[in-house]
Amino acid sequence: MSVPVSGRPAPPRPGASLRTRLLRGLLALSLVAFALAVTLAVANTRHNVRAELASSAALALDLVDGLLGPVPALPGDAARRAEWLDQLRELGRHRHLRLDLLAPGDSPRWPAPAEAAAPAWFAALVASEPIQFERERRDADGTPLRLLVRADPADELAEAWTDFSDFLALLAGFALLAGLLVWRLLGAALAPVRVILGGLDALAHGDYDGRLAPGGVPELDRIAATVDRLAATLAAGRAENRRLAGHALTVREDERRLLARELHDELGQSLSAIQADATLIAHTATDPRHIESARAIGATTADILGSVRELIRRLHPAVLDVLGLRAALEQLLADWAVRHAPVTTRFDWDPALPERPACGIHAYRIVQEGLTNVTRHAAAGHVELRLWREADALRLELADDGRGCDPAAATDGFGLHGIRERAQSFGGHATIESAPGQGLRIHVRLPLDG
Amino acid sequence: MSVSPPPPIRVLLVDDHAVVRAGFRRLLEGCGVRVSAEADTGEAGYRAYVDAPCEVVILDLALPGRGGLETLRRLRARDAAARVLVFTMHDEPAFAEQALAAGALGYVTKSSSPEVLLDAVTRVARGERCLSPDIAERLALAPSGGPQAAIEALSPREFEIFRQLAAGHSAAEIGERLALSAKTVANYGSQIRARLGVGSRAGLARLAIRLGLIEA
Prior knowledge:
The structure holds 2 protein chains of 2 kinds. By secondary structure, chain A is of the alpha+beta class. Chain A has 3 domains: 18-177, no CATH class; 218-313; 323-447, Heat Shock Protein 90 (2-Layer Sandwich). Chain A has 10 helices and 8 strands. Chain A has helices spanning 18-67, 78-91, 120-126, 154-204, 218-284, 288-315, 318-323, 325-339, 360-378, 416-425, and strands spanning 97-102, 131-138, 144-151, 344-349, 382-390, 393-400, 429-434, 440-447. In chain A, the strands form 2 sheets. Chain A has a 5-stranded mixed β-sheet, with helices on one face. A 3-stranded antiparallel β-sheet of chain A has the order 1-3-2. Chain A is rod-shaped, with a radius of gyration of 52 Å. Chain B folds into 2 domains: 10-141, Response regulator (Rossmann fold); 148-210, Orthogonal Bundle (Arc Repressor Mutant, subunit A). Helix content of chain B is 52%, strand content 12%. Chain B has helices at residues 18-30, 42-51, 68-78, 93-101, 114-125, 133-141, 148-152, 156-166, 171-178, 182-196, 201-210; strands spanning 10-14, 34-39, 56-59, 84-88, 106-109, 130-131. Chain B has a 6-stranded parallel β-sheet with strand order 2-1-3-4-5-6, with helices on both faces. In chain B, α2 (42-51) runs parallel beside α3 and α8 packs across α10 (182-196). The longest helix of chain B is centred in the C-terminal third of the chain and has 15 residues, at 182-196. Chain B is globular, with a radius of gyration of 18 Å. Chains A and B meet through α5, α6, α7, α8 and β4 of A and α1 and α4 of B.
């Protein structure tokens, strides 16, 4: 359930961390560099491949013309012509040149083009078709022939791809290294920030005792020192608050005790004396009107006495002062059990505990509050109260087998907050252990010397 | 022929409130009880009892100085037959248990009707136990401190010692009555408490009252 806060702008949605943002930028930059590199490389390769192929082919044609003699005539000299043709094709065993001689009606017999070592997308981008040149020749008979020179770009492509992929790998490696470097550097630089954030988080959760270790970055160390001072101030404030709360509680209990004693010693006693006289008059008077008046006085006095008695009981447990904590708690639990029959109770007391500890009234009030809580929320069938001594502390445990609750969700309105505050005000602490359907257990520790 | 009336019950009134003492002295004397002495502290009450023993000591618990319970113990230690009726504002059963365990015969709260006190004085003078109705009710309602079955498992001798301890008698008194040494009785006592799961003599008293073994 969220409560709208008026007059305050909504906090900005939490964005990506600084590190992530920087890395994203670096990645984008790398991608742009990649794209540029690819574009440039493709354009260059395309141009280079074409120029290379064209010049190779032209050179080849000139060489063929000059080196090989006239083409022998076919019908008469088939063997010589075949030899000539082999010589011609041998010339074409060149890296990327293929040569052929075609009589009219022949079609070129190209060997299968070499499998390009470059990926298809690269070849497609470079888009270099084989380049073909041809020249008219006649053989010895004067039969017209076509001399074909075909330049295959596969080798050129492969060569360009090797260069290009090396360059891409270099670029990728650089981007990766740069990213790692940024990640590590920022991580190291921001480590003190994380420490400070952790400290602030602890503060927000009420842990004022932690101190932040300096991280080596002067600006951040100053922030950390300020957070530490803030924590110390808060801790001192809280300690003072608890001391005051404890003082207020003690003063209140003292006043209640004095008030109860006053009511007990003065008002109560005098009322019982009035009752005695009223009874005496009722017994000895002869006039019926006097008897009636005396009885009325007696009855009214009894009513007031009843109220005073109830008031005293509510103000302060007299048993605690006269008979001690054990008797007082036993009585409290017994009275509670009578009012809440058929709930069963069990009481355990460690004889190592003093009968009248200084924190007695607070232990009593905590049990009182705990029992009220059981009445209100638990629907319990059994309640156990256990007190024992642990070093210089009184330990108290009040457990029920009722319906329980989620202690984190239900500390307010369960009176459990008050129990915790009271325990802390006197240098102790209280924890509540529960789960829905699992009953509820209150653990309290109170110092005995406090 | 005339029968002489029974001698009036002599009472020692120990209460630190002059107003209360005056009021109840008038009431008691008006109803045929003789207040032979008054005291405003436990010490003074003890001395008055030693000087002039009486049938009933009416004792407040909230006394300055030594306090009512301690005075009660001293009176009982001095005279095991002293009949003490506690008369107090304290209406918590725990006080009654302590008082009965310390040997009081009666326990009447000051908020009870004064007739209850008059009746209690008469009964305590006869050696009967007497509790004002508010206390009797709360004691009877209090949850049991020990199991009934464990009581039934006690031997006749243990049971008798349990009953007398609960009634507030000292180990020496019980030993005298049962022809045992006080030490033996004390041993029985701790054995009985262990078997009943009761930590104190007050707990024994409450258990006995609940089970109707000693009169409320």
